[in-house]
Amino acid sequence: MPSGRPASDKPASDGTQPDRTPPDRTPPAKTPSARGAPGMIWLRPERSGRGPEPAHSRAAIAAAAIALADADGLDAVSMRKVAAALGAGTMSLYNYVPKKEHLFDLMLDAAVGEFVLPAEPSGEARADLARFAGEALAAMRRHPWMAGLALSRPSMGPNALRCTEFFLRALAGTPLGGGAKMEMFAQLNGFVCQFAEFERNAGGATAEWHAELVTYLGGVIATGRYPYLAATLADSAGSAPLDADRAFERSLNRLLSAFLTARE
Amino acid sequence: MPSGRPASDKPASDGTQPDRTPPDRTPPAKTPSARGAPGMIWLRPERSGRGPEPAHSRAAIAAAAIALADADGLDAVSMRKVAAALGAGTMSLYNYVPKKEHLFDLMLDAAVGEFVLPAEPSGEARADLARFAGEALAAMRRHPWMAGLALSRPSMGPNALRCTEFFLRALAGTPLGGGAKMEMFAQLNGFVCQFAEFERNAGGATAEWHAELVTYLGGVIATGRYPYLAATLADSAGSAPLDADRAFERSLNRLLSAFLTARE
DNA sequence: CCTCTCTAAGTACGGTGTACGTAGAAGTGC
DNA sequence: GCACTTCTACGTACACCGTACTTAGAGAGG
Fold first, then answer.
1. Which residues in B lie closer than 8 A to residue A161 (C-beta atoms)?
2. Closest residue to D10 (CA, C1′)
3. Each residue of B15-59: pLDDT tens digit?
4. Pick from B213, B225, B228: which is nearest to A169 by CB?
5. A residues 13-52 near B, CB within 8 Å?
6. pLDDT value at residue B146
7. Which among A41, A85, B154, B202 is placed 20 to 30 Å from B56, CA to CA?
8. SS3 A46
């Protein structure tokens, strides 16, 4: 994981809380330490050198949470269970992760950190973008909870930033504006997430679930009220099943063509 | 939110035993009525003419839940609160909605039912697809919770089927295969959902949140480690802000072009 | 040293989904 | 009419959740 340091150079001094006035000895008595804390975890330094050394790192916390989610699904990730997995008390975890949301942020960024990207793009934009998408899909296949998380909240952690940088660099030779590039990055990410979700739904569910879907769609078709749907399902069922990788490539290529032929 | 396999761990009756075999008339008295029920709510009849008439309709339940979600967010939708809004006991709701997931399904399909679509497509595929996307975006703007829900689970309710039919009919004149059409439908839906989510994040958050984001990105840029990101942000901030509708149209057109120029 | 800030942990509260059991209403077959 | 079955309605109870508040102690800066 070549994430180096997570860009935490300036955030500590976030001046929103002017509690540094020494003469007043009595703050409202209810300001232990994290009262005016930032809502974004990346704005909070991992270590603020004063007290005892924290017993756990963000990386370890994320790893513990990821292990839980990989094994038993995202719902199994609770503050209690993560803390227990770390050998810590439940409430100790709140020193590192003030809200549960932040735990998800850590997990997601750690998973994004698994993407293996070349140090710099090849210069062939289409290949670079496809490489990125492939890495993302692979990670989402390893971590079934990842796509859903990424869809539900935008991530701006250090590893996500690295990916953004790679993407933008790959697109540097195109005539696209900054806004369009950012839109495309979001669109590409969203596409991969959705594909991974779809794949997980289609493949990961039980046979019973599949049987129910077939029953349901059969009933729907039998009503005769959806002739085009019926024909389309029949057509897609009749042709060769087209494995997942090919389907991904096909849809991805459609999207990339749209990107790369756009002149603005 | 998609959960992998929560598999509620009630130890009392080992759930792995499929006690649905009809010949055995005496399950251990632990099969009230909904034991072998389908996991998909659309496979369950709204009324199964035997007992007393239900006091509430699915539409009313969905409406109550939607009112709650519109007012206070999706998290405010709990079985207790929906039941209370209907004037029913909490557990009565479980007669209509065996799992909370199903409540979400009802809400989503009811919201999809708000799409106003012509009885039949115009014949101009691009315009028809844009019309559909526009209706979807409008509904998602009315219901801020909708995009997130639609992204997190595929909906196959009656109204969603009507939309699918419209979409497929609009694409009937193209040389695309059935599988490709279904992929495109998913891709188009996903695009609209993501756009709506993005818009909601960008516009709906507090000023404080915005200030934090600016602080954070400023710090990130200041590290100098992300030159392309810095340049892109500067570029997009420098140009005209480009209102939301235009941005939607631009991205949508990119996507539709990709669809309509595909030969398979 | 003292002092201040941090970390660690426990306890407790209000909320959640939902399993279970009971009571009664409305259809069906005799 | 009758039983019988199947449904609806709803209260109680449980396990678990996120987290506010509190206390105790560790370690650096003066």
1. 220, 226, 229
2. B89
3. 333 333 333 333 333 333 344 567 899 999 888 777 788 899 999
4. B228
5. 14, 38-40, 42-43
6. 98
7. B154
8. coil
